[in-house]
Amino acid sequence: MDPLILSRMQFGANISFHILFPTITIALGWVLLFFKLRYNATNDSAWMRAYFTWVKVFALSFAMGVVSGVTMSFQFGTNWPGYMEKVGNIAGPLLAYEILTAFFLEAAFLGIMLFGFRRVSNRIHTLATVLVAGGTTVSAFWIIALNSWMQTPAGFEIRDGVAHPVDWWAIVFNPSMPYRLVHMLLASGLTVSFLIAGLSALRYLYGDRSESMWKALRTGVFTAAILIPIQIFAGDQHGLNTLEHQPQKIAAMEANWNTGPNVPLVLFALPDEAAKENRLEIAIPDGASLVLRHSIGGVVPGLNDYPGNHPPVFPIFWSFRIMVGTGLLMLAVSWSAAFFLKRRHSLPKPLAMLMVPMALSGWLATLAGWYTTEIGRQPWLVTGVLKTADAVGPVAGSHVALTLAIYLILYVLLLIAYLGVLVHLALKAAKDGDSSPLPGVMNAALSQPAAGE
Amino acid sequence: MTFDWPTLLPLIFAGLMGLAILIYVILDGFDLGIGILFAAAEDAEQDTMIAAIGPFWDANETWLVLAVGLLLVAFPLAHGVILTALYIPVFVLLIGLILRGVAFDFRAKVPSGQKHRWNRIFFLGSVIASLAQGYMLGVYVLGLDVGPGGMAFGVLVALCLAAAYAAMGAAWMIYKTEGDLQKKAVRWLRTALVLTALGMAAVSLATPFASPRIFDKWFVFPAMLYLSPLPILSALLFLWLWRQTFHLPRPDDRHSLTPFLTLAAIFALGFAGLAWSFYPFVVPDRLTIWQAASAPESLAIILAGTVVVLPVIIFYSFYAYRVFGGKATDLTYD
Question: What keywords were assigned to this record (chain A) (predicted)?
Fold first, then answer.
């Protein structure tokens, strides 16, 4: 096979595996801070039990994120040397600032957050939690800034064939950056709230009615119920921003072959790029015009305006629909669960059983969303500046294929182990309930009293 | 040579990158080394060994991200050339780092029956990552030579770097543990030191003979005179440390950090020698740091941030090490 497509698959596999874990740690850090602050305020040890259950998930997810992130930093060079040659002057500082302002902060204070509860004062431990949570968020800020710049580049000029920065403010806060950042942070919040709700529902199904389970369950369900409508609004705004700056992406997402007014909203279709038409189409008349232009006569860009310069239609048409569909399902599940928790103070068994697989709904929606926006940038690596095909390195296809196969096997095994540990931790917590041992006194010089003492 | 920004900035960044690599090799060296020594330890000892590195390894590995990051952002051309030439060893390194990084967490969280499996994976990952780093160093020293000779030399350096990391790990354990395990660590240190010395001698001899340019840099008068302290001091430190291993641990655990600091000093001397050999090239005999550097305005904006942030990073890293100072006890999430 050709090294270009293999390199794309390899990078896609790595970045897909990687994004699963930051998506969890970005928001989980803040949730842990919430648990910690509730404990500080109420002195209720159930909050601390919830903290200690979820801090283990955080530690494991963080480790998975770090090791897959290190992989990414090498792959820029091993697979895409042309990228840094062309836009290194812009991508470089953004990546450097991520490492300097976020990575070290997270890594240094993670140790204190995980293992330092009895070694530092409560205030320092809370501060360490704040710094780790803040670090993950700052990290997301820089990476989203760079990714958005690749989507909608601004603030630069080309001299001698190489991009040079002109206006750093315009580079960082490029047109799509604020929308993408908000969309991603909310996605992280939803992923974590569904993960917490789902694993707590699993504990519920196993008969766990402990206070720490209820606290985690309520936190997960109510956070999800609050975030999902905000996310739907933010996603819509992000879509309108894309319409303005990357119309060819919208045209492919909607599988709209011809520019014009009264464009229907396609619910189901098998887009056929060769024939330039949709097979088995089910559509709402004027729907796309209404959603995108807020009037049924609104003109929606079609693929005919971008011959040879638009992304592949089939994958992003479907990844977009998977994302939106998952989002709507999230809305239904989180609102009904919130209703039952608020009004009945219990959870119907079928709903709890649905919530368990929904624990991974955030991952599905996030991946589908990223596929939409990243495949939607093709054939460009940096829109209008650098084509993906021009950035690939000279490495032989066979090497890329071999390493890709091993990465894939490794990632599948690690995912199985990761999910196995999540279930194991949930079941263990379910078995122990409120009698799970809180950290005892381990060291001589301690600044923290054992919780509940 | 004129001292204007376009000349100075690549030089400063080469220095920063060298510093990041050196700190990485010393810090991640000891935790990789403890992974290598895992195979020789008993179950209960393994828990103590993990406790000796648990709070630190993540921050240690971040220095690798900074080093590669600086190569990527300051010398983008070199980043591409070096990493595409070392495609397979880099891949092996990454697999090793992935395996050991996740094994840290999995071994503590899986049902107890599966702990053994993750202990083995932790050992394997540490060995693989150390060997890959050594191999890459060997191939790089010979000017990215991937012929049979270069590969053989790479294998030699790989074994020696793994031994050097094991020595670092043992030295760190002398500092962080007590009792029988500490005595064991002293014996491990002695064995690993022999191989480390052998490796440093091999690299020191091979480097000048692999490249006439480097040969000329070392073996001309007066440079030879200025440089002679590097090998002589290294040899003296080796001999001194070797003798120390017969007297450790000292009563009241005095000087328990000395072996680690001595090894760190030896690493720094060896690194200075390499840096002198390759300067001004970032890709040996092909690209100088000025040819490979990013635009000065980009370097300037990174430098501005670095000057502010790096001292803060070093400060809070010290703080984190101090919080977990003293002998390692069982790690708990509290």
Answer: Cell membrane, Electron transport, Heme, Iron, Membrane, Metal-binding, Oxidoreductase, Transmembrane, Transmembrane helix, Transport
Q: Are residues A319 and A450 in the same domain?
A: no
Residues lower than pLDDT 50 in chain B: 334
**Is A192 in contact with A24 (CB distance < 8 Å)?**
yes
Residue A415 lies in a domain: yes
- B324: Cβ contacts below 8 Å, ≥ 6 apart: A111, A115, A116, A119, B55, B56
The answer to whether residue A193 is domain-embedded is: no
**Closest CA of chain B from A275, distance in Å:** 40
Q: Identify the residue with better confidence: A114 or A368.
A: A368
Inspect the interface and report whether the beta carbons of B94 and A95 lie closer than 8 Å. no
Q: Which of A140-144, A331-335, B156-160 has the lowest mean pLDDT?
A: B156-160
- Mark which of A376, A393, A422 sits at the end of a domain: A376
Q: Is residue B20 part of a domain?
A: yes
- Dist. CA A350–CA A196, nearest whole Å: 18
Which residues between 54 and 73 in chain B have a beta carbon less than 8 angstroms from any beta carbon of chain A?
A: 54-56, 58-59, 61-62, 64-66, 68-73
Q: Are residues A291 and A152 in the same domain?
A: no
- In a shared domain, residues A37 and A153: yes
Asked if B330 reaches chain A (Cβ–Cβ under 8 Å), the answer is yes
Interface-testing mutation among B9, B98, B121, B297, with chain A (most A C-beta atoms within 10 A)? B98
Distance separating alpha carbons of residues A453 and B17, to the nearest angstrom: 49
Q: Residues A364-418: pLDDT tens digits?
A: 999 999 999 999 898 899 988 888 888 887 778 888 888 889 989 999 999 999 9
Q: Considering only CB atoms, which chain B residues are within 8 Å of A136?
A: none
Q: Which chain A residues contact residue B82 at CB under 8 A?
A: 77
Does A181 reside within a domain? no
DSSP state of A152: S
pLDDT in tens, B283-331: 877 888 888 887 888 888 888 888 888 888 888 888 888 887 777 776 6
Task: Give the residue numbers spanning the domain of B17.
Answer: 11-293
Tokens of B119: 């202990």
Distance separating alpha carbons of residues B164 and B167, to the nearest angstrom: 5
What average pLDDT is seen over chain B?
83
Indicate yes or no: pTM above 0.90. Answer: no
Residue B24 in any domain: the answer is yes
The answer to whether residues A235 and A368 belong to one domain is yes
Residue A265's domain spans which residues? 208-245+247-376
Same domain, A443 and A395: yes
- Count of domains for chain B: 1
Q: Note whether B325 contacts A: Cβ–Cβ < 8 A.
A: no
Helices assigned H by DSSP within A152-210: 168-172, 177-205
Q: Which amino acid is at A265?
A: L
| Token pair listed for A448 | 């923290």
Residue A60 to residue B106, Cβ atoms within 8 A: yes
Position B2 scores a pLDDT of: 65
How many domains in chain A?
2
Verify whether the Cβ–Cβ distance A96 to B69 is below 8 Å.
yes
ipTM over 0.85: no
Whether A269 and A137 share a structural domain: no
Please check whether residue B302 is in contact with residue A96, taking contact to mean a CB–CB distance below 8 angstroms.
Answer: yes
Shortest Cα distance, chain B CAs vs residue A171, angstroms: 12
Q: Is residue B299 part of a domain?
A: no
One domain, residues A104 and A233: no
Instruction: Check CB contact under 8 Å for B106 and A421.
Output: yes
Q: Which of A362, A355, A322, A323 is nearest to A28 (CA)?
A: A362
In a domain, A317, yes or no: yes
Among A376, A392, A408, which residue terminates a domain?
A: A376
- Whether A83 and A124 map to the same domain: the answer is yes
Q: How far is CA B170 from CA A90, B51, B156, B174, in A?
A: 43, 14, 21, 6
Q: Which among A51, A75, A78 is the top mutation candidate for probing chain B, defined by the most B β-carbons within 10 Å of its own β-carbon? A: A78
